[in-house]
Amino acid sequence: MAFPHDISVPDALHGPRVLLRPLGLDDAAELLAAIHESRGHLTPWLPWVRHVHTIADAQAFVARTRTRWRRRTDLAMGIFARNGGHLLGGCTLHPHDWSLRTFEIGYWLRSTATGRGHAAETVQVLTRFAFEGLKANRVEIRVDPRNAKSRAVPERLGFVYEGTLRRSAPGANGEPADRMIFALIPDDYRRLDWP
Ligand SMILES: CC(C)(COP(=O)(O)OP(=O)(O)OC[C@H]1O[C@@H](n2cnc3c(N)ncnc32)[C@H](O)[C@@H]1OP(=O)(O)O)[C@@H](O)C(=O)NCCC(=O)NCCS
Fold first, then answer.
1. In a domain, 99, yes or no
2. Which of 6, 47, 67, 117 has the fewest CB atoms within 10 Å distance of its CB?
3. In what order do the strands lie in the sheet with 13-14?
4. For ligand 1, which residues put their CB under 6 angstroms from it?
5. Nearest partner of 45 among 95, 114, 97, 96, judged by Cα
6. Average pLDDT in the 5-26 region?
7. Domain that holds residue 148
8. Is 4 domain-assigned?
9. pTM of this prediction?
10. Would you say residue 8 lies in a domain?
11. How far is CA 92 from the centre of its chain?
12. Which of 114, 168, 178, 180 has most ligand 1 atoms within 8 Å of CB, for mutation?
């Protein structure tokens, strides 16, 4: 189903320390620097990183995310520090089905921004927006079980582990890999004691 036009998507979302907004072409150089700095820790989990090496690649990546934003096929955003405005990483709220209002969250951080709770805060901001702004019925996070740092994010936040889809998604080298499914539905969300 196409994006329901009675729903508005704001230009930016905020947490206490992060600002989430779509990347613009002016952000391409900083995006490239973040990827160069973080290639070692991103490449095993994010295959698209392998294709971003030059400023032209970064600009093309940004342009693709902007097209998807306009069509509402993916709401991809940069994660920026509210204090200083620098790029910390990226995130996506991906609609699986607009009519069912089911969404999936993805995230990454540049190496120098890890270990401070920015991913957890980003997931909280996107989850809150999904349930309160988009009237979501389900918000999920899919993680390769080998990705301990990524698994820890939904686990710490109280997402419900629903099971593992074995050999259901491509691994870093295209091989079939497992995915753990963590999710929240509205009743779960209301029970969380997030600040
Ligand atoms: C997945 C990824 C975003 C997790 O990053 P992260 O920094 O570990 O996660 P958070 O930002 O939530 O930070 C949590 C860490 O900060 C610490 N922390 C410090 N201050 C904190 C605060 N105010 N609030 C919460 N946590 C805080 C936590 O204790 C935790 O530390 P630990 O890992 O030593 O236990 C990062 O490893 C990454 O970009 N990986 C590559 C891309 C990827 O795998 N993406 C996911 C694909 S499914």
1. yes
2. 6
3. 13-14, 18-21, 75-81, 87-97, 102-109, 138-143, 176-184, 160-170
4. 41-42, 45-46, 107-109, 114-120, 143, 147, 149-150, 153
5. 114
6. 92
7. 13-191
8. no
9. 0.97
10. no
11. 3
12. 114
